[in-house]
Amino acid sequence: MLKHTYIQVRQYKHLLLSILIFLWQVPAHSQQAILDSLDAHPQQDARHVDLLNALAHSYWNSAPRKTDSLGRIALEISKKLDYQAGMAKSYYEIGVGQWMLGDYPTAFENMSRQLKIAEEHGLTAQETDAYAMMALITDDQGLLDQSLEYHQLVLQRRIESKDSFSIGTAYNNIAALYWRLNKLDSSLLLFQKSYEIRKAIGTRRGMRESLSNIAYILNEQGKPREAMVIIKPTLDDAISMNDLNGIVNISETIGNIYMKLGELDSAEQIYLDALPLAEEIGVNKRIIDLNEHLARLYEQKNDFKKAYQYLDIYWTMTDSLEGMESANQIERLKAQYQAEKKEKEIIQLQQQNQISRNWLSILAVSSVAGLIFALLLYIFYRYRQKKNQELIEAKDLQTRQLKDLNQIKSRFLANISHEFRTPLSLILGPAEKLLRGSKEGEEKQQLRWIYNNGQKLLKLINQLLDLSKIEAGKLSVKASQSDIVQFSRHLSSAFESMASQKDIKLFFKPKVDKLYVYFDPEKMDQILNNLIHNAIKFTNSGYVKVEIEEVKLKETQSAKITISDSGKGIHPQQLPYVFDRFYQAGEEDEHSFEGTGIGLALCKELVDLHKGKIEVESEFGSGSKFTVFLPLGKAHFNEKEIVLKTDYPSDQVIPVSEKADKITLPGVVNEHQALIVIIDDNRDMLDYISAQLHSQFRFLTSQDAEKGLKLIQAELPDLVISDVMMPGMNGFELCEKIKNDIKTDHIPVILLTARVGDEFRIEGLKNQADDYIQKPFNSQELSIRIQNLIEGRKRLRKRFAEKIVFQAEEIAENPQEEQFLKQLIDGIEENLSEPQFDVNALCKIMNMSKSQLNRKLKAVLNKSPNQFIRSFRLEKARELIKKGHGNLSEIAFDVGFSSPAYFSKCFHDEFGYPPSSILN
User: Does residue 849 come out as left (phi exceeding 0), alpha (psi in the -120 to 50 range) or beta?
Assistant: First the structure.
C-alpha cells in the first residue's frame, strides 16, 4: 500500500512539472513577453515561484540536474517580480543541484548569493539553510576547519529554533565532519545522537541515513560484522521508498563492509548494482567513488585488466571535474555579463509597455493549471488522510488481536502445564519408590531412565509455568543476601561430569574470593543452570569458563557473572533474537537441533526480576559469551521481595549430567553377531538402545557424529543407527557421507528422529537412508527392522557368492559400489600374471587396510580378498581354455599360478571338474 501511494505522489509531481514547463516555456510565445506580463498578477506568480522551487527541491536526491534547471527558471521569474524570498530560495536550489553534481565552487557561489539576500531582508530560516549548505560544500572541498565553524553555527541556530528535524540533521553533518578529522569515537556518538532524535520524530529517511553512517564508522573501527547487522535493513527501506540516492550511498557502504570482511564477490556485485543507479541520477562524486572502489576490488582479485579499466574512468572523471571548475568560472562570468545585458533589455521593454496579445490565453492556461494543481493537492490530501486513518485503525486492531492472542496463549500454556504435572507426578512417585527398593542391574537402569527423563520433562513444564506467571505479573522474587561466588562454584561443580564426557575443560575463575549479593537462590539456580548447560551443549572438545567479578555499571556497583565457551557460536542474523520466547534457529539451518526456545527467554525474565541485565556476544564458529549483571545492595528491591533466609537448600546439587550410570549387560559377546554402530548425542538414548539390542548384536556407540563417522570408517559395521538432530554434523549429513564413501556405501543406515511429518521422512530417504524411524519407537520394531536389513544384505551376498560374476555393473547396488568393484577388478586384472600379487598388494591399490578390505568384500560378495583373487584368476583361466589360448601350463602361468598341478587342483575345487575336461 505504501509503495502504491508513493507511485501516485510521483505521478502528481510529474504532472505538475509538465504543466509548469508548458506555462513558462510555451514555444509559440516569447518568454520575455511572459515575464513582462507578470506585473499584472504579482501575488499569484510569487506562488508559482514557490511551487517551482518546491518542485526543484523534490528532485535534489534523484535528479539533481532537474533541481538546477527548475531553480534557474524560478530565479528568472523571481528577478522579474523582485520577489526576494523567491530569489534566495532559487539560489539555494541551484546550489544544491550543483553540489550534488560535484561543482562545488558554483554551489558555494549560489549559497553566498542566497545568504546575502537572506541577511538583507531578515530571512532567518533561509540564512541558516545557506550556512548549512556552505558547511557541506566546504567539507567536500576538504576545507575542514572552515566547515566546522559553519556546522557549529548551524547547530546553535537549530537548537535555538527547537526544530528537532533540523537538530538531528545538524548532528549528523557534524558527525560526518568528525569522521573526516579521524575522530571516530566522537563521530559515532554524534551519529547515534542524531539517530535517537530522528527516531523520536519518526523520519524514515533520516533514521536510515544515521544508521548507515553508524555502520560506516563501525566498519572503519574494524567491526564489519556489527556494521553489517545494522546497515542491511536500511537498504531494504531505501528500496521500498525508491530513494535512489539512498540506495547508492547504502550500497557503497555495504560494499566497503564486504571488502573489510574479505567477501570480494559480494562486494563486487553490490558495487556493480549501485553504479548504474548513480549514473542514472547523475551524482558525479558517487560515480567517481564507485569506480575507485571497483578498481581497488579488482586489484585485490588480481584482475588487473578490469582494475585498470575502472581506475581509468576514475581519473578521467576526476580530471574532468577539475577542468569543469575552470570552465564553470568562465561560464559564470559570461552568464553575469549576459544577465546584466538582459536586465537592461527588460527595463527598455518595460518602458515601452509592450504587452503580448496572447497574455489572456496564457493567463487562462495558468488559471486552469492552478485549479488542476489545487484539485490534485486536495485529492492527494484526502487520499493520504483516508489511508492514514485506515493504517491507524488496522494497527489498533492488530494490537488488540496480538494482546488477546498472547493472553490466550499464556492461559493455554499455564493450563496444559498444570495438566501435565498430574500424570508426571504419578510417573515420578512410583518410579522413585521402585528405584529405592531395586537392586543394581538392568531393571534399576530402566527405572533411572524413567525417573531422570521424567525430571527433565518436569523442569520444562516448570519453565513454561514460570513464563506464564511472569507474563501475568504473579512471579515474585524472594531475595536474601548470599555469597554469589560460593553459590556459583557449588553449582558449576555439578557440571564437571557432563563436561568431561565431551572432552570439555570447565574452568571456574572468580576474580574475588567473596561477593555478597541479594538474589533469589531458586531463580538464580535456573539462570546459571541454563547458561552453563547451553555452553556445554553447544561446545565440542573445547572449554567453558565461569568468571565472577565486581564492576561499576552506570554508576551502580554490580556483580558481573560471565559464562563463555569455545563452541559453535551464534549466527549474526540470529543474535538479536536469542532472548525471544520460543525463538530457535530456522529449519533451514543445517546445524540446528532440538530445543524448546524457552531457556534463554526465561533467563532474561528472571534477570529482569532481579533488576539486572543480561548480554550476549558471539562470533559464529568461535564461541559465545553470556554476561549477567546483578546490582549490589538491596535498594532496588521492595520490602516484599526481601527475605531474611530462604528455604532453598544451599547445598543442593542439580543432576545436570546427561550420562546415567553405565549399565552392565549380561551375556557373552559373540564375535559372529552383527556389529552395529549407534550414534546419538543423548547418553541415555545410547544406553537404552544398547540395552534393547545386546542379546542379538554387538555394538559400538558415540555421542558425536564426527567421531562416529571415524568409527564407522575404521570398523565397517553391518549397520548404523543414528539420531537426526545433533550439534555439529547432523544425521542427514552423516548418512550422506556414509553413502558417498566407497569404503562405507554398502552399510545400511537407520535414522531416528523426534520430528514428525512426511517432509522429514522424505528428506531422510533422499539422503539414501535405508530406513527412517520416529521417536518414541517400539524396541521390538527396531530390532525387526535391523534384522530385515542385515538379512537382506546376507541374501544378496549369498546370491553373488553362488554365481561367479565379475562385471561390476551386474553386482553393484549403487554407483559408489560399482566404482569400488571396478577398481578392485581392474587392479587384479592388471597384475593377473604376477604370482606374487596378493592381498597386501591389493590393499595398496584400494587404499584400505586388510581388515577394512576383508569386511567390505564380505559385506558385498561374501568372499575374503584371497578367495576373490583366486576365483578371479580361475574364471579368467576358464575363459582362456574355452577360447583355446595355449595349453593348460601356459594358461596357468598367464593367470598367476606358478605350479600347473596346483592350478588343476584349485580349478577342480572351484568348478567341480578338472580343466582338461573343457579341452575334451
Answer: beta
